[in-house]
Write a structure and sequence with these properties.
globular, Alkyl hydroperoxide reductase AhpD, antioxidant, peroxidase, peroxiredoxin activity, AhpD_core
């Protein structure tokens, strides 16, 4: 199992990450599609080759092809949107917020899976990428669709743990290559 391999690669000083990784994936109450779509989108967003290599096969095995593609689409579109909207928010000139984005985002309107699932994956990726405006937007859509806060928090916990595992493993790889 790739998840076990990933957990075994986590160094002892990051034991909490190992425990949390097993918990957020192994004990998640999210439905299978929401869970593995969140895992895949976050693995991509983490930018960690090791994390993606280990988690992608398991995600693919647990997702229907359309959900697999939609999770990858969520990671891709949010990679763009998070930079754009975070920048708009951070610039002190409010005029940027009134300007048309002019960026194609068709997949958000027609993701090929339940809108709630895609929104959840987009929210998790936005958490990794640190875009408050996108987090607020996706959280509002989810809440209006009847998704409870516990489900939203579950996706954010998955994002946090996967990101932390990626940072830790990538840092260890760099440190080991410097020896």
């Amino acid at each position: 199992m790739a998840l076990d391999e990933l957990k075994s690669a986590i160094p002892d000083f990051a034991k909490d990450l190992k425990l949390n990784l097993g918990s957020v994936i192994g004990n998640s109450e999210l439905p299978q599609q929401q869970l593995w779509g969140t895992v895949l989108a976050c693995a991509i967003a983490s930018r960690s080759p090791k994390v993606l290599k280990e988690l992608e096969p398991e995600a693919q095995a647990n997702l229907k092809p359309e959900a697999y593609q939609a999770a990858k689409s969520a990671a891709a579109i949010m990679a763009m949107n998070n930079v754009f909207y975070r920048t708009r928010h951070l610039l002190s000139d409010p005029e940027y917020g009134t300007m048309r984005a002019g960026l194609r985002m068709n997949v958000i309107g027609n993701p090929g899976v339940e809108k709630v699932d895609f929104e959840l994956w987009s929210l998790a990726v936005s958490a990794i990428n640190g875009c408050g405006q996108c987090l607020d937007s996706h959280e509002q859509v989810l809440r209006q669709a009847g998704v409870d806060r516990a489900t939203i928090q579950e996706a954010v916990k998955i994002a946090a743990v996967i990101q932390a595992v990626g940072v830790t493993l990538d840092a260890e790889a760099v440190l080991a290559s410097a020896e």
